[in-house]
Amino acid sequence: MNQVAELWIYLSATPLFGLTATIVIYVLVHSLYVKLNQAPWANPVLWSIVLLAGLLSLSNTPYPTYFSGAQFIHFLLGPAVVALAWPLWQRRHELARRAWAVLLAALIGGTVAAGSAVAIGYALGLPSEVLLSLAPKSVTAPVAMGVAAELGGIPALAAVFAVLTGLLGAMSGKYLFDAVRATEHAARGFALGTAAGGIGAARAMQVHPDAGAYAALALGIQVLLTSILMPVVSRLIGG
User: Fold this and answer.
1) For residue 84, which of 18, 32, 132, 216 is within the disulfide window of CB 3.0 to 4.6 Å?
2) Number of neighbours of residue 72 by Cβ within 10 angstroms
3) Phi first, then psi: what are they for 182, rounded to 5°?
4) Which DSSP state fits 140?
5) How do the pLDDT tens digits run along the chain, 239 residues long?
6) 15/33 Cα distance (integer angstroms)
7) Pairwise CA distance, residues 239 & 231, whole Å
8) Which of 177, 179, 197 is nearest to 187 (CA)?
9) What is the rounded CA–CA span in Å between residue 15 and residue 134?
10) What pTM does this model have?
11) Residue 213 neighbours by CB distance under 10 Å
């Protein structure tokens, strides 16, 4: 027990703690996720967040101490998103035939995703800073933070909204698609990538290669449309 206590004191006081805790917890949760046949409610990202938050709270570990080690995993988010281009390249001829339909679907889907969230928040009387942080919720957290800062929102809050949106989409997508009888993997994946950002695209990639490819395409388009159009629309409305 003394050796275990000494090891814990050492790990919790060094950057190695954040990296080790994140990898160990995710591997364990993902193993359970696979054993449960990738049930949506067992999403490994969700349960990793829950367990890591509990661990940090119980051990009184400040978040900066944790992130000093976990930031290496944060850095890998960039290469991971870029790697999503490979399944798109494999389907480039098919995507070229559907280019206009895909672009129109992405524009309508992104507008509905952002507009409905802002409209509901406005109806509930949320402050303008929160509404502006809510608008880019359907893209990856780093992009949402940048767009929110440009709009005058709160970047940290935008990241929380993006993660929550992705988790809700990844967990509920299967049941919603089954309810409306949407059976085509490409359509299901594109919808997840449009509405649920990076976490939704990761879920689609686990389900089927076609779903993952179209989810990655939708995510990429949403990042471009959100980054370019949302600040322009905001200025037009505000000015």
Assistant:
1) 216
2) 13
3) -90, 105
4) -
5) 555 555 555 555 556 777 888 889 999 999 999 899 888 888 888 899 899 999 888 888 888 878 877 777 777 777 777 777 787 788 888 888 888 888 899 889 888 988 888 899 999 998 989 988 988 888 888 888 888 888 888 998 998 899 899 889 889 988 999 998 988 998 999 999 898 888 888 888 888 888 888 888 888 888 888 888 888 777 766 54
6) 28
7) 12
8) 177
9) 32
10) 0.77
11) 28
- The secondary structure of 163-217 as a DSSP string is HHHHHHHHHHHHHHHHHTT---HHHHHHHHHHHHHHHHHHHHHHH-HHHHHHHHH
DSSP state of 126: -
Residue corresponding to tokens 């992009």: 143
For the chain, domain boundaries: 2-75, 82-238
* DSSP label of 40: G
Find out whether 101 and 117 touch, Cβ atoms under 8 Å. Answer: no
Cβ-count burial of 153 within 10 angstroms (0-12 exposed, 13-18 middle, 19+ buried)? Answer: buried
Structure tokens at 57: 């709270």
Q: Minimal CA–CA distance to 133: which of 100, 160, 99?
A: 160
Give me the amino acid identity at 147: V
Question: If we measure between CA atoms, which residue out of 180, 192, 182, 185 comes closest to residue 218?
Answer: 192
Q: How far is CA 198 from CA 89, 129, 180, 217, 234, in A?
A: 18, 24, 23, 11, 24
Separation of alpha carbons 189 and 173, rounded Å: 9
